[in-house]
């Protein structure tokens, strides 16, 4: 069975189909040492390289795996860290002929839900802004923001020449000098939750991702631990991604 190169490499987690098409146009991908062109089909036994580096892909239809992980605050969402900090991938189960792909990132000090999958196409769809997946967080801030300031977070604040805002903002209590809120946004750019609060003069003292689309962080899942998603949860992710799921 043949498959187009950009589709096969995306499914293997090497990038989105659009990004792989860009690499092909730039002449960076080779098939059996010949420069690839758009529309090339793979039989399954080809040697694929990007900038001379071998790219793994599975020629057989595979059953993808999907897990959730409760990230602690001392790990980085990366495959490599020049500072030598612990990686989230260090805590995940090893798998053969595939690799775990993180759906989105959490910064070093942020804890909570991360989804990992071996399906690159699913990961890219879930992260793409067009899918409009809501990410929800529990946020503790130092201080007690006024109603007018909270309205600004909902109506929008300019960050990097663009308007950013919370699609969901709910007060969930707090005592003393701190207040807790539940927030949600459809496009989680770099440190966006923290930056929005900082723009109205409040420091985030704790930040926990509690859900990503239909997947919620179970209270029973301890930090640094993972668990498999059940079939209904997996189907819900493919449904919101609008991917034909036949595994």
Explain the overall architecture.
It is a single chain. With 247 residues, the protein is an alpha+beta fold. Helix content is 21%, strand content 30%. The chain has helices at 5-11, 17-25, 120-127, 147-155, 192-199, 231-241, and strands spanning 3-4, 29-31, 34-35, 41-42, 48-50, 53-54, 66-71, 75-76, 86-87, 101-103, 111-117, 135-142, 157-159, 162-164, 168-171, 178-185, 204-212, 215-216, 226-228. Strands 7, 10, 11, 12, 15, 16, 17, 18 and 19 form a nine-stranded mixed β-sheet that branches. A four-stranded antiparallel β-sheet has the order 3-2-5-6, with no helix packed on it. Helix 1 (5-11) crosses helix 2 (17-25) and helix 1 (5-11) packs across helix 3 (120-127). The relative contact order is 0.16. The model has no long low-confidence stretch (mean pLDDT 90).
